[in-house]
Write a structure and sequence with these properties.
Its cofactor is heme. The protein is mostly helical. The protein folds into two domains: about 1-200, Cytochrome p450, CATH 1.10.630; about 200-234, no CATH class. It is built from nine helices and two strands. The protein has helices at about 1-20, 25-45, 55-65, 70-90, 90-100, 110-130, 135-140, 170-200, 200-215, and strands spanning about 155, 160-165. A two-stranded antiparallel sheet has the order 1-2. α3 (about 55-65) packs across α6. It is globular and about 55 Å long. It starts with a helix and ends in a 19-residue tail after the last helix.
């Protein structure tokens, strides 16, 4: 996945260089970059989120966290219910109750979209036998349908179905949801704070920049195996 993340990072640098604003709202850039990485590494979508903000995936991914409010606790609670809805509640139950109750708080439209997207990526990967570097595609060879699994490999534990012959589609979709929920806000906020610290401590910024140049190649890039040499950055 490293080349995929590199491509997103190059876009991030390009967008930073292209802005004429001073000062800039760095959160807008770190949020776009983080979503770009998640879309590419989890779902295999090359969207350039940092430039294109109206793609269906972006709209639903943001809804997955709940509408941002001044109360961070409320936003986190909405995100928590969305994850439970996506991971634990079967689609047919969500659709049934959606006929009578407004399920928008639980993210009905969003969870259905993410499920369809995950199914599509899985089906395309299995049909084309294509080896891609995103999470869902890499799981394609390990996915099994419970109806095709040897009964001896299936067991029930605490109401959950387990199989020793591979992953179920629900397993893959649940982990894809965790990619978004665990990675988006945390990574974007960490990067935002990092850039703030670099701005107020230019001496440390210069030292860090010099240490990276010592490891980077002539094109300014660091191969994956050389990242461990960036001890000061770590």
């Amino acid at each position: 996945m490293y080349p995929v993340i590199q491509r997103c990072s190059q876009r991030f640098v390009k967008h930073l260089k292209s802005t004429d604003a001073a000062p800039i709202v760095i959160k807008d850039y770190t949020s776009g970059y983080t979503m770009d990485v998640i879309a590419s590494t989890a779902f295999g979508l090359d969207l350039d989120v940092q430039e294109t903000t109206d793609h269906e995936f972006i709209i639903h991914a943001k809804k997955f966290f709940g509408i941002p409010t001044d109360d961070r606790a409320v936003t986190r609670m909405k995100s928590f219910f969305n994850i439970l809805n996506f991971v634990l509640i079967p689609k047919f139950i969500r659709d049934f109750f959606g006929l009578f109750v407004d399920m928008s708080f639980a993210g009905l439209e969003t969870t259905n979209y993410l499920e369809r997207l995950a199914h599509t990526v899985l089906d395309q990967s299995k049909a084309q036998n294509e080896k891609r570097n995103d999470f869902i595609s890499m799981c394609a060879d390990k996915v099994v349908d419970l109806g095709e699994v040897d009964k001896d490999s299936i067991r029930m534990t605490e109401g959950k179905t387990w199989t020793t012959q591979g992953l179920t589609r629900k397993d893959v979709m649940a982990n894809a949801a965790i990619f978004i929920s665990a990675g988006y806000e945390t990574t974007a906020s960490t990067l935002q704070f990092f850039f703030y610290l670099m701005a107020v401590h230019p001496d440390i910024q210069d030292k860090l920049y010099s240490s990276i140049l010592e490891v980077a190649d002539k094109n300014g890039e660091c191969p994956y195996e050389d990242l461990k040499k960036l001890e000061y950055l770590d």
